[in-house]
Amino acid sequence: MTGMSAADICILMPVHRNTSAAHLRGALDSLRHQTLRAGEILVVRDGPLTPAHDVVLDEERALAPELVVLEPGSVGLVGALNAGLAHTTAAWVARMDADDVADPRRIELQALAAREGTAGVIGSAMLEFEEDPGTATARRDMPLDHDEIVRKLRSVNPVNHPTVLMCRQDVVSAGGYLPLAGMEDYYLWARLAAAGTRFHNLPQPLVHYRVDEASYRRRADREAIRAEWHLQRHLRRLGLVGPARSATNLVLRVSFRLLPPRLMRPAYDVVRSVLAGSNRAG
Q: Which domain of life is it from (predicted)?
């Protein structure tokens, strides 16, 4: 993608009042300290925020003129993401959660990969943390090349959504984000792969991703379990899996969601490993 510059990149960051204002400040500070700053930082307010959030946004806008705040109302995460995609004119959109921290070279390295390659979705590894971004509790590596990513897409989500840089036109042409109870990103990757978009993951962990027990509890609610069934139906419809693999996926992916939260994290890793192995077996 020759000729690409920082001005071609928008960082898309929805924020909800449940996000700590201090965490929001940390996320925005990490974007201001990039070795290559994006042309636009688009913060989408998903409903009313607190006065503390407003202070952070006002102060950050004074330091970063590229920061834009969009107010579509209480539209939920999917609505906020789609509102951002519709608002920006940037050719590339980088996702960022409002409580995560970006590595200083995130935008530089992903822009370089976009310029030199053919991928329309560029992700990376990421480091999980609970309180201190400098103290990682886990590392989430992903397959690197397109063929391996699409192969693993048959059973597991092969892209860390909070790390991605995406070609906006590809995403819009695929219908943007569609509701699927926390698996909207996985469903988007499946539609993009079926449409011929190429994928690439960088090996460097370019995002520090905040996790807590509540994030695992959300994976166990009934809506998430129903979404697993719908996801497998979509994968079959798109021609990515057949009935047998779909059934195997469903059994394994639902099983770990039925465990107590304290067991879900290690079980999640085991399930991903088993499903990846089943992919290698065909």
A: Bacteria
- Helix intervals (H) in 154-200: 168-173, 184-195
Q: What are the structure tokens assigned to 38, written together?
A: 């994006």
User: Where do runs of H (alpha helix) occur along 154-260?
Assistant: 168-173, 184-195, 213-218, 222-237, 243-255
| d(C-alpha 253, C-alpha 39), whole Å | 39
Angle between helices 51-63 and 21-32 (to 10 degrees): 10
CA torsion sign, 23 to 133 to 64 to 90? negative
The domain locations on the chain are 6-211, 213-282
Can you say whether residue 100 is alpha, beta or left, with left for phi > 0 and alpha for psi between -120 and 50 degrees?
beta
| pTM, entire model | 0.88
| pLDDT tens, N- to C-terminus, the chain (282 residues) | 555 778 899 999 999 999 999 999 999 999 999 999 999 999 999 999 999 999 999 999 999 999 999 999 999 999 999 999 999 999 999 999 999 999 999 999 999 999 988 999 999 999 999 989 999 999 999 999 999 999 999 989 999 999 999 999 999 999 999 999 889 999 999 999 999 999 999 999 999 999 876 555 555 567 778 888 899 999 999 999 999 988 888 888 777 666 666 655 655 565 556 555 555 544
DSSP secondary structure letter of residue 2: T
Q: Which two tokens stand for residue 142?
A: 């992903």
Question: In the block, which residue shows the tokens 């971004």?
Answer: 133
Consecutive H or E run containing 58: helix 51-63
Residues paired with 201 in a beta bridge: 123
